[in-house]
Amino acid sequence: MNEAVVQGPGRPEPERRSATPRMKQGAARESQLPETHTLDLTVIMPTVDFGDDFTRSARRVIQSIARFPGTAEFIVVLDGPAVTPPTWLDCSSVTPLATGARRGPAYARNDAAKAARGRVLLFVDADVELAPDVLDRVSAAFTAQPDLVGVFGAYDDEPAAPGLVSQFRNLLHHHTHVAHRGRATTFWTGCGAMRTATFLDAGGFDPSFSCPSVEDIDLGTRVTAAGGRIVIDPSLQCKHLKRWTLGSMIHTDVFGRAVPWTRMLLSRRQWPATLAIDWRSRISALLAVLLITALLAAPWSSHLRTAAAVCGLALVVCQRSFYRLCFRKRGPLFALGAVLLHVTFFVYSSIAFAAIVVADAVVSPRRRTEAVKEAA
Known about the structure:
Layout: E1 6-7, H1 27-30, E2 39-47, H2 52-67, E3 72-78, E4 94-98, H3 105-115, E5 118-124, E6 128-130, H4 134-144, E7 148-155, H5 164-179, E8 182-184, E9 191-195, H6 196-201, H7 215-225, E10 229-240, H8 246-268, H9 279-297, H10 302-318, H11 320-330, H12 332-375
Helix pairs in contact: 8-12, 9-10, 9-12, 11-12
């Protein structure tokens, strides 16, 4: 390996496709790949540094490739200027790249995909430690299902970071994916694989997402709209190493997820009942908002105190499988804290959603009017 991380491919980024045409899917499309794609798997990991979480995540990938009975490579993309990588990355299975400037994980993953030689791309975040059997399971899934174009897994139920918020946030993500196993209309780059041909046909990730956001959801939506079959397989397990605070959770959920996701849904006028926006979550969000509203007004009305109790009980019933998980893993005090954090999560997510919807309702007619005037 070179002393410095090599610069990523300089070809222009693929443009975002608002509507992806239907295309040949699955293993049938792989025969049209260039002859350079001779490996079974390419693992892609973007990172902004070579810190402790990256070290733990990347070392697990290298160990997994060494045990993998097929052929695989590992592409590490430094999102930023090229620097000298750690010496332990100096092995035959690793290819280091750098974007040259901070451009975001979507751009970095696209760069790696251009250099990849695998017929399947396995995207892994730099704060995620794969279970030892993930590469084998991914390879087996695509071999057994020729029509499968994408698959992604779930965090395990033993988050690495201690603390109420970290444990809650990672267990919530785990539960969401486990509860929605099977066919999906989205994608996830924490631990998600896609056939290289499908990824390239879709134009890759939208590089306009310059920060970690919903670029994976956007890709999954485009791929499935074109007829591709993506599934959630919770047996593809990984451990999330991220440490959450209440502030970082709210900021990420609002500005990194709720706002861009709502804008994406509004632009496409599609409201799929999947993952965090399934009907159970929508009802729970409504109950959480009603609960907080009733509690704030409860001093002036005994009826509202009763209404708050009813809403709280209904919310617990609606989310009972998640709260049972919290109770089983960490006990009653943690489960109580999880309920309070979950209510908070539903309320601020609902406020963000409502704000974007209202803003779109106000701004969109104005833009259409301006467009008509310009056309005239």
